[in-house]
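Please decode residue identities from the backbone states below.
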């Protein structure tokens, strides 16, 4: 994490979790192991943890990310690492889940919060267990966003019509002129809504397909900026770019995306009016938020593929191996 981002990020309670992580590592060392590679790996992670415990800025997002990614870089993916991650983030998970429940008219203090936090923790553990890069860059923003996806999936099962289309929400004031809601209790409007749901799904398929076809670095930069909401400093560090180059990479990605997407939209029947081709060309706010909104529709996108190689597919479809995703590009 960059120095600027570390200064502006909200404090995160990391030190108590670090101390317990160290204790679990020491217990594992005390039990002994016949595998010298496992012993060496655990000893290296213990040294990493000790170094950060003695540091001055322990309770920061930067420290959390350094310990998590440093452990993964050393090949350590055991449950104590997942326990450390959950202990640091579980309050943030619960907070995001409550906010999203409240925004959708649900009880933010219901018993489902604990279940959703547990489901989020399991998803994070699965993501950690599946991390297989030489150098890992799992971000705080990605991990806490998993709670959003689990909550969206829960709300979708509870209320099937929850956010199926982009016109279910008005995110920015200047987008109000193209947003057109539908009354759920009107039979005629239900027909209109079904048509819009079908249209939105075709639109989502087109958007995700075009973004997946972008070159690796441009796709990654676009995903980090538009979906994960990271600043240019964090994107530069994550992708190994100069901060001054990130803007140009993102602009190229958007230009290529729009150039490929707009002709495709002409072929989608029913794409007219408030969310039509001409409107997408005209209104910058819609274009800049379209990728994020399409990833939030329905069941959302797969967080594992999003984090590993920035490949976008709906959570309901099978994951694509990293090799296949790269070959497709």
């Amino acid at each position: 994490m960059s120095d600027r981002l570390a200064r502006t990020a909200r404090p995160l309670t990391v030190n108590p979790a670090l101390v317990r992580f160290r204790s679990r590592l020491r217990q594992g060392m005390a039990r002994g192991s016949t595998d010298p590679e496992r012993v060496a790996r655990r000893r290296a992670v213990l040294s990493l943890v000790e170094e950060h415990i003695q540091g001055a800025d322990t309770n920061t997002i930067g420290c959390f990310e350094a310990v998590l990614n440093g452990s993964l870089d050393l090949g350590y993916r055991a449950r104590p690492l997942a326990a450390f991650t959950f202990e640091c983030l579980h309050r943030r998970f619960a907070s995001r889940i409550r906010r999203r429940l409240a925004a959708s008219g649900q009880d933010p203090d219901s018993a489902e919060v604990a279940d959703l936090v547990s489901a989020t923790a399991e998803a994070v553990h699965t993501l950690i267990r599946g991390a297989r890069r030489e150098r890992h860059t799992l971000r705080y923003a990605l991990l806490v966003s998993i709670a959003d996806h689990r909550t969206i999936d829960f709300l979708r099962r509870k209320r099937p019509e929850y956010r199926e289309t982009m016109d279910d929400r008005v995110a920015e004031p200047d987008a109000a002129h193209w947003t057109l809601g539908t009354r759920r209790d009107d039979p005629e409007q239900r027909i209109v809504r079904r048509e819009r749901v079908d249209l939105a799904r075709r639109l989502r398929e087109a958007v995700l397909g075009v973004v997946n076809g972008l070159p690796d670095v441009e796709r990654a930069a676009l995903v980090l900026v538009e979906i994960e909401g990271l600043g240019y400093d964090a994107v530069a560090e994550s992708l190994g770019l100069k901060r001054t180059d990130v803007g140009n990479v993102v602009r190229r990605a958007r230009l290529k995306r729009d150039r490929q997407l707009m002709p495709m939209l002409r072929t989608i029947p029913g794409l007219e009016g408030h969310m039509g081709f001409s409107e997408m060309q005209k209104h910058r706010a819609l274009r800049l938020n379209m990728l994020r909104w399409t990833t939030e529709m329905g069941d959302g996108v797969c967080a594992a593929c999003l984090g590993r190689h920035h490949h976008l597919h709906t959570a309901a479809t099978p994951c694509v191996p990293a090799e296949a995703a790269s070959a497709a590009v």
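Observation: Confidence is low (pLDDT under 50) at residues 1-8, 159-183, 324-329.
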